[in-house]
Write a structure and sequence with these properties.
The protein is of the alpha+beta class. Helices cover 14% and strands 33% of the residues. The protein has 3 domains: 2-87, no CATH class; 146-176, no CATH class; 213-377, Jelly Rolls (Sandwich), CATH 2.60.120.260.
Length: 381
């Protein structure tokens, strides 16, 4: 009943929220009564505490409400006074209880709150006991999907991003409706400052990582093809490797340039090695590793062009220890004029130690090489 009373207060306000000109004397008097009553709309207050005028008006107003309820009066949105709705704030209309239905378009000038007693934003929806959430429920038909759509044009099947739950398959979808290869879906971080596009699903279906991430290609020494002058297989503890202690000792490796490589950055070869047992690298001693390579496309001769040699050197410090494991880096120039790297090229590596240049007298025992590169998408194959 309280809801009906409040709703019909709007009706009466709509009827009288206009100039007194053109009204009968009776309408003006009733308007005054209404104004008096709306200043004290506590329906639970005893009639005895009201003035005679308020008591008289209350009786008349209740008679009107009963008549409106019996006659099933229906109000269109156009019959409500915009002026009355704006000036009537929570001092007059405190709470709408039970169920309220709007038959047309309803505009809220300030804020909307559902499931709470105070607002912290213009649209605030909260559910007791389960935390903040917005619930969209599909129809009872098992094939009717629940959809949250952000539409760019108002045409729901042309452009927009939607979150959809398929009732028929129980699958969830994040969908860009734009039927074009430019219709990407971008996952971003740090948008309150300088945004980072962490991952992008292209309109073509490919997945990219614009910021990139590091990946490795392992080249195990057990798979190496040894040269005419071969390094010596050596084991220390549980580590077995190839010992290089003379010039021209060679191991050959091969790898394909991966399709997920960014194509615009150098690759880095990491040489994992340790010195001869009982012969630590002394302060100032050097060990130099060389990689000579060619990057060959399918259909090319494997000895095309001039080979490229890249080197990495360790210089011993004052605190080197016996059998210490080292990582020495060798940079492979991605856009070298003689052997530029290209995705899907086959890279042939000749690996050796430059004993004529370095100064360490013992053997350098290599356990593994790995190639590090920057990936921006998922690998193929």
């Amino acid at each position: 009943m309280r809801t009906k009373l409040i709703a019909l207060i709007f009706v009466v306000g709509a009827m009288f929220a206009q100039s007194n000109e053109g009204r009968s004397d009776g309408q003006v008097i009733l308007q005054n009564y209404f104004d008096d009553f709306i200043q004290d709309n506590s329906f639970g207050t005893s009639v005895l505490s009201r003035s005679d005028g308020q008591t008289t008006y209350q009786n008349l107003f209740i008679d009107f409400l009963l008549w409106a309820d019996t006659a099933s009066v229906h109000l269109t949105p156009d019959s409500l006074s915009t002026t009355f709705l704006v000036v009537s704030d929570t001092a007059f209309i405190d709470t709408l209880e039970n169920n309220v239905m709007f038959g047309g378009t309803a505009t809220f000038i300030d804020s909307i709150g559902i499931g709470l007693t105070s607002l912290s934003s213009q649209l605030h929806i909260e559910s007791d006991g389960v935390g903040p959430r917005i619930v969209l429920t599909g129809k009872t038909d098992a094939t009717a999907d629940a959809i949250l759509l952000l539409s760019a044009t108002g045409a729901t099947n042309v452009q927009g991003l939607q979150l959809r739950y398929d009732r028929g398959t129980a699958e969830g979808y994040i969908e860009n409706l734009y039927n074009n290869d430019a219709g990407n879906i971008v996952f971003r971080t740090k948008t309150a400052g300088t945004p980072i596009n962490a991952m992008t699903i292209l309109g073509t279906g490919a997945i990219t990582f614009p910021a990139g991430y590091s990946r490795h290609i392992e080249l195990q020494v057990g798979s190496a093809v040894l040269g005419p002058t071969a390094p010596s297989p050596t084991t220390v503890g549980t580590f077995r490797g190839l010992g290089f202690d003379a010039d021209n000792e060679v191991a050959n490796f091969i790898f394909d340039v991966p399709t997920d490589w960014d194509g615009v950055s150098d690759m880095t070869a990491h040489v994992h090695w340790y010195p001869t047992s009982g012969d630590a690298v002394a302060n100032g001693e050097t060990v130099q590793w060389d990689i000579t390579y060619r990057s060959i496309a399918e259909g090319e001769a494997v000895d095309s062009g001039s080979s490229v040699t890249a080197s990495g050197t360790l210089t011993g410090g004052a605190s080197e220890t016996d059998k210490e494991l080292y990582y020495t880096e060798i940079i492979l120039d991605y856009d070298h004029a003689d052997q530029p790297l290209t995705a899907e090229d086959c890279v042939g590596i000749q690996f050796d130690r430059d004993v004529t240049t370095d100064t360490y007298s013992g053997a350098g025992i290599v356990t593994m090489l790995h190639i590090q590169y920057n990936s921006i998408t998922l690998p193929e194959g």
